[in-house]
Amino acid sequence: MITRSSFAVTVSETQTAMERELVKVILECIASNGKVVIPVYRLGYFHELITILLEHWQQIKDASGKAAKCPIYLSDAAMEYPSRFLPVLFRTCTPTVQNLLRAKNPNAADLQVFDWKRLQQPGPFVLFTGPANISQGDSLRAIKAVASDPKNLIVLSEYCTPGTVNYLLYADPERKRVSKRLGVNVECGVHYQPCGDEVDTKSIVQLVSRVAPRQVILDYTVPDDLEFVKTHVQNHLKMDPAVDTSVVVKGINPAGRTPIEPARDIPLRIHKAMFNNPSDVQGMLIAEPKRKLMLVSSGNGARRLRKKKHSLFFSYSWKKPFEPSPRVKKKSSRPASALSFLLSAAVESDDEEDESEQQPQADADQLLKALESSLTKWILDLPMEKIDRWLKLRTVGVSVSAEWEVHMEWSYDDEALAGRVLGIAKQVVHAEYKKQLAQ
């Protein structure tokens, strides 16, 4: 289990007290004919807030026999879509949790898509808008319409870290900076409801007691906070008979990897064909019945899974850069007049330019023989096949041309071998090129 411990060093109110306070301020706003806007993300804590309000609306209906007169709206119909998958999630819970969820199942029919004309009409309502950032999208549109009336209320829950516009709204009592950011004078009420990320140590201990994991990984920023939470959790777990005493509590290493020991040993079988491959092992792990894993080659794995194997091939060409000839032209020692000297100098400069532009041609057959000899010398464990002007080593094909070019093709599985062959081919081309210039 991985959980945050950044807020665990503080003592917060109980969740029930915070929910009671939230419902109280919303009912006070509705009683004064005000409008409530709750900016949230479309997934996550939004569904928890919806459940709190719908349960309270149901309690009012059970107590008075009348449905609540305040409707609950959604700015986007897609916000309600995840609720349709709750019956699927029920099957993954224990029977006790299933019964609890059935008993508290809210009526999703009470949620309606918002008509934006109601912003200018009188009458209370509760509106969930997205995104949680109040300076964007539907949230900004709704807040601009209700912020100037003291009877209205804005409930903040998510995206309230320091530096955000949401933090300015509830942390600055004068609200001058946030009014400037939003472009509207903010005079309405603001209530902050901590979202589910802000847990205390009691919540961590309660969660560990119910989940009973083998390891508890704490995310932290201050080392002293980690030690405090770690000691507190360990002391409480020792007194809980429902939790195994072998539970490990540690923090995430901020400077590198955090090792997590496996919960159980899983037997692994290796196919015998894997030992016939002299190169690096490349294969796949297949889960077998009775909690076993088997390591097989990609070909055997595709056949066992009855899947078609896809091959990925690459091609590459490299050309030897031009190098000037090291030979030095011998100048005539015969004395000449000034005019003949100028004319001969001009002719010699033209000859040098023509010579510099021409690159010697390679003997393609000799170059291919030299490459074949070097590959045989340096790559001893693989058979080599010659097809026309190509040399093949497994899926790697290499060829050379009279323009001092190296052409290669290879598959993804032999990428390391292709790198070795390319390095040898470059060395052969360099050596033959120098021999050609020396002649």
Provide a brief overview of the structure:
The chain is an alpha/beta fold and 439 residues long.
Write up what this structure looks like.
- The chain has helices at 15-31, 45-64, 86-90, 95-103, 137-146, 165-171, 176-182, 201-211, 223-239, 298-305, 338-357, 364-378, 415-438; strands spanning 2-4, 35-39, 72-74, 111-113, 125-129, 153-156, 189-192, 215-219, 248-251, 268-270, 283-288, 292-297, 313-319, 385-387, 390-393, 396-400, 405-411.
- The chain has 439 residues and is an alpha/beta fold.
- The two termini are 73 Å apart.
- The longest helix is centred in the C-terminal third of the chain and has 24 residues, at 415-438.
- Helix 6 packs antiparallel against helix 7 (176-182) and helix 8 (201-211) packs across helix 9.
- A hairpin with a 2-residue loop joins strand 14 (385-387) and strand 15 (390-393).
Q: Give the rounded overall mean pLDDT.
A: 76
How many domains? The number is 4
The largest sheet has its strands arranged as 4-3-5-2-6-7
Count of β-strands: 17
Element layout with pairings:
Blueprint: E1 2-4, H1 15-31, E2 35-39, H2 45-64, E3 72-74, H3 86-90, H4 95-103, E4 111-113, E5 125-129, H5 137-146, E6 153-156, H6 165-171, H7 176-182, E7 189-192, H8 201-211, E8 215-219, H9 223-239, E9 248-251, E10 268-270, E11 283-288, E12 292-297, H10 298-305, E13 313-319, H11 338-357, H12 364-378, E14 385-387, E15 390-393, E16 396-400, E17 405-411, H13 415-438
Parallel strand pairs: 1-8, 2-5, 2-6, 3-4, 3-5, 6-7, 8-9, 10-12
Antiparallel strand pairs: 11-12, 13-17, 14-15, 15-16, 16-17
